[in-house]
């Protein structure tokens, strides 16, 4: 397999008197869509933020896009190539209007005003948000802010998408549109989610944080009747509800357990 886009080796992180992560090894390759699972407070958000330099590990090394990363200057380059969707959209949106928020990233990467606006409008249109361009950002609903926050990340045209609960606050129609869009994207993805439908539909593999350590999901097959073939993942912090169509006998599928 080609060199990993992002690779963590023996990463540890904690706050005074409160260890969070210990001995974390992880790799993300081109084309992968990895679900990062675990219970509330397990350290999932912290791990995403470590990857883009918002925290510094107390131990271990971070390689991203072919280089080991240490300094803030190193991570500024990483953040230009790995877009992070925050768990709270209000942490990502700060301009008066939607379009201004969406074009901020491309402008910051050196695009002209015209180039940035073309990119911004194309991204909004691809998400079904073209009519939001002139809306006042702070007046949007939580779900609308969530979609606009994703648009700000995609407008930077990153190689990697890091997403923290991307379907938070979305109604069923918006979630379906988001899923369809994410499935169409070529970027490697690492995403945190408690949304079983998102994980099973989007993930190519899963990793689980538990007690500060990270492990690969254990894939196994067993007889089960259904009419679809995608990951089925059972892990701490993931919604338990799931339904199958029992009309087609004799199929088996992978399950993942922590």
Structural write-up:
One of its GO terms (molecular function) is ATP hydrolysis activity. InterPro entries: AAA+_ATPase, ABC_transporter-like_ATP-bd, ABC_transporter-like_CS, ABC_transpr_CbiO/EcfA_su, ECF_ABC_transporter_ATP-bd, P-loop_NTPase. It comes from Sedimenticola thiotaurini. The chain has 258 residues and is α/β, with parallel strands linked by helices. It has helices at residues 44-51, 72-81, 98-108, 113-126, 142-154, 172-184, 196-202; strands spanning 6-15, 18-28, 33-37, 59-64, 67-69, 82-85, 160-164, 188-192, 205-210, 213-216, 218-223, 232-234, 252-257. The model is unreliable at 218-230 and 240-258 (pLDDT under 50). The protein has one domain (6-257): Rossmann fold (3-Layer(aba) Sandwich). A hairpin with a 2-residue loop joins strand 4 and strand 5 (67-69). The chain is built from seven helices and 13 strands. Helix 3 crosses helix 4 (113-126) and helix 3 (98-108) runs parallel beside helix 5 (142-154). The protein is globular and about 45 Å long. The strands form three sheets. A six-stranded mixed β-sheet has the order 6-7-8-3-9-10, with helices on both faces.
């Amino acid at each position: 397999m080609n060199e990993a886009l992002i690779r963590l080796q023996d990463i540890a992180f904690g706050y005074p008197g409160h260890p969070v992560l210990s001995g974390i090894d992880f790799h993300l390759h081109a084309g992968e869509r990895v679900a990062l699972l675990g219970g509330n407070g397990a350290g999932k958000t912290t791990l995403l933020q470590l990857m883009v330099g918002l925290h510094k590990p107390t131990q271990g090394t971070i390689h991203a896009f072919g280089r080991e990363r240490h300094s803030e200057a190193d991570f500024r380059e990483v953040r230009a190539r790995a877009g992070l969707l925050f768990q709270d959209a209000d942490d990502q949106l700060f301009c008066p209007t939607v379009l201004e928020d969406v074009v901020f990233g491309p402008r910051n990467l050196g695009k002209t005003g015209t180039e940035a606006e073309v990119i911004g409008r194309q991204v909004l249109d691809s998400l079904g948000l073209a009519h939001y361009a002139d809306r006042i950002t702070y007046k949007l609903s939580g779900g609308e802010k969530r979609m606009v926050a994703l648009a700000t990340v995609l407008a930077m045209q990153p190689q990697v998408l890091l997403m923290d609960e991307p379907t938070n606050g979305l109604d069923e129609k918006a979630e379906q549109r988001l899923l369809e869009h994410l499935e169409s994207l070529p970027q490697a993805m690492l995403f945190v989610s408690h949304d079983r439908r998102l994980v099973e539909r989007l993930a190519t593999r899963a990793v689980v944080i538990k007690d500060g350590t990270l492990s690969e999901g254990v894939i196994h097959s067993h007889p089960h009747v259904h009419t679809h073939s995608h990951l089925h993942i059972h892990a701490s912090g993931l919604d338990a509800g799931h339904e199958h169509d029992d009309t087609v006998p004799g199929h088996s599928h992978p399950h993942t357990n922590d």
